[in-house]
Amino acid sequence: DFIRWSKTNYPAKKYMLVLWDHGGGSRTGIFVDELFDNDIMFLYELEQALKDGGSGLEAVLFDACMMANIETACAIEDSARWMIASEEVVTGEGTAINFWLKELCNRPEMDGMKLGRIICDSAQEKSADLGDEQGAQLLTWSVIDLNEIEEVAEYMEELFRTTATIYTEAPELTALYMKQNSSSERYGSAEDKMIDLSSLIYRAPIMQNAGLEMRNRM
């Protein structure tokens, strides 16, 4: 309803949707609705809401923790061109909204990629200005081209199907895999169980070869 209302009352050549609140990535989704028993919007609900609101967004900014993942990108790929989000926990009350809004007002013709870069860079500058050392260590802001996500998702599906078959046929490799998996890059807390897939692939003995082959094909 908000998307449709905005487009009706404030028509523009480009639209960006800013989603600001708590985020939990593919595990929990985004938003904690304090008016309705702390209800959370799961990714499939977000996907449907964006489709109901009408596609054609230039960008979606997740000003929330741990939303830069392939599951979120797949959920919104049909509704937006660019996705701006962080893999890690977001500190310091989010992005430097005062700065990047001024930049957008001064250059309204810019596309989602350029604005996304400004959002990412200004978040880093904000962290430095605040002297937020912890926040600086958690900076993982990115601008994702949603036109490329479908192909990436197809490769990842193929990769994991192949490796699942291999581990089923050779269960003795599972223990080695779990040992190496423990050193993969992680985001959020231990409960969030958010693991960097690239790190996971190249630390696992079987997945490493499969991953290198996939990367060469891409």
| Outline | globular
Question: SSE order in H/E notation?
Answer: HEEHEEHEHEHHHEHHEEHH
Number of strands: 9
How much strand? Answer: 15-25%
Evaluate the radius of gyration.
19 Å
Helical coverage, percent range: 40-55%
Largest sheet, described in full? 4 strands, mixed
Low-confidence stretches: none
Describe the overall structure.
With 218 residues, this protein is an alpha/beta fold. 52% of the residues lie in helices and 17% in strands. A 4-stranded mixed sheet has the order 1-5-6-7, with helices on one face. Strands 3-4 form a two-stranded antiparallel sheet. A two-stranded antiparallel ribbon has the order 8-9. A hairpin with a 6-residue loop joins strand 8 and strand 9. The longest helix is centred in the C-terminal third of the chain and has 21 residues. It is globular. It starts with a helix and ends with a helix.
